[in-house]
Amino acid sequence: MSDKETDNAKGGSGHPDGAVIKEVYESIKDSGDAQKHAHKYMMKDQLRLVFWETTAGCNLECVHCRRLDVAHEMMKNDLSTEQSKQMIDAIAAESKCILVLSGGEPLFRPDIYEIAAYAKSVGLIVALATNGTLVTPEVAQKIVDSGVQRVSISLDGATAVTHDKFRKLPGSFDMAIRGLKNLQALGMETQINSTIAKHNVHEVKNLYKNAIDLGVEALHIFMLVPVGCGVQIAESDMLDAETYEDVLNWFYDISQEGKIQTKATCAPHYFRIMRQRAKADGIKISPKTHGMAAMTKGCLAGQSICFISHKGEVFPCGYLPVEAGHVLKQSFSEIWKDSNVFADLRDQDKLGGKCGICEYKKVCEGCRARAFYETNGDYMAEEPYCIYEPVKIEQAREK
Q1: Strand duo 325-326 + 313-315: pairing
Q2: What order of strands is seen across the sheet that includes strand 261-265?
Q3: Strands 125-130, 261-265: parallel, antiparallel or unpaired by DSSP?
Q4: Is pLDDT larger for residue 76 or for residue 91?
C-alpha cells in the first residue's frame, strides 16, 4: 500500500470519513499497518448504517417482529415521498453511508423504487431488506433498475416447516427462495438474514449449508432480541446464555472457513469470542486474518448505526425503543451529533454491571436492547445473556 493510498484510507484523521466498511477494508487489507487503521475505523463514531423502516405495512405476521402494530397495508403516518427525500438529503449531508430500506415490508411502498434511486443519486449505498415473498421477476427487475446494491432476504429456518411457522404464512419459505433466485438471475448481490432462537437453533448447520448452496454473498445471523412481538415469545424462544455462547463459537468456526461472508448481529459477545479464540490459536486479529470483522465491534447502536421509524422517529437501533429525536422536528445532523441517548451509548464509562468492568467492553459493550428489556428501561445495564466473567470479578473472588 503506497503512502498516498494510506493517506486516502486515513481520511486525514486515521479514519476514512464517509467511506463504507467494504471500501476501507479493500483499501487497507494488504497494508502493513492494516490493524492500526482498522482499529481507528472501528473506534470512531462515524455514521455507517441507517436502517429505515419505510413502512409498518407487511404481508406477514412474524412471531419475533419488533412491531406490535404491523398492518396489512401502508399506514397513513408513513413518511411521504417528499418527506422521505428530505430525510435522505439530511442523511447524505451527514455521511455517505449505507441506507437499508426495511419495514414492515418495503415493497409495500409503491414509491420504493423512486426512493431507492433518489438515495443512490445523492451518494448513498442502498440496500433492501425484504421477506422475499413479493419478489416476482418483474419486481426483481425494478429493484435492480432502481440502483439497489444488495438485497437481504429473511430465512428463519432451514426448512419450509420451520420458517413458515415462524413467519405465519404457509408457502412463505418457497416464495422467499423464488424471490432470491429472481434477483440472482439479474446479477443482484443477495444475503440471507436468519433470526436464531429455540425454534431453529437445531438447524443452524443446515441454514449455513443452504446459504452456500443458494449462492448468496453473505449469511447474517440475528440473535433474538425481546422487543415488540419478541417480548411475547421471550420466555419460550430466547436461547439461554450457554447455548448462545455455543452458537457464536460455531459461527466463529464457519467464519474461518471463508466459504461465505458471515456476520453476527445483535450478538456483541461474538467479538469477545473472536478475540479469545484467535488468542488461543496464536493469531493476531487483522483485516487479513478476520476480514471485515476485524474492523467493527459488538453493539453499534447510536455509535455507527441508527434506526428511523416509518413515522420519522430516530432510535439507536431497531430493537432499542428509546427515542433520540425525530426527523420531522429537528435536523438529522443535530440528532446524530447532539442526542443525549447517543451520547450515553458512546460513553463506555457509563456501562453498568459486569459490562462496565469487562476487559472486552471496547469491542463488545453487550446488547443495549437486551439490557433495556431485562431491567425495564436501563439501556446501560449489563448484558443479561453473557456467561463470561470479567477478569476483575475473578480477581476479586480470589482475594
Answers
A1: antiparallel
A2: 261-265, 218-223, 189-196, 150-154, 125-130, 98-102, 49-53, 305-308, 313-315, 325-326
A3: unpaired
A4: 91
Question: How far apart are the C-alpha atoms of 398 and 261, rounded to whole Å?
Answer: 42
What pTM does this model have? 0.88
| Residues 205/165, Cβ–Cβ less than 8 Å | no
Q: Cα-flanking dihedrals φ and ψ of residue 361, to 5°?
A: -65, -30
Place of cell 422517529: 313
pLDDT in tens, 158-210: 999 999 988 878 999 999 999 999 999 999 999 999 999 999 999 999 999 99
Question: CB neighbours (10 Å) of residue 371?
Answer: 25
Distance set, CA 254 to CA 65, 109, 202, 384 (Å): 27, 37, 16, 26
Sign for the CA dihedral angle at 111, 113, 116, 117 comes to: negative
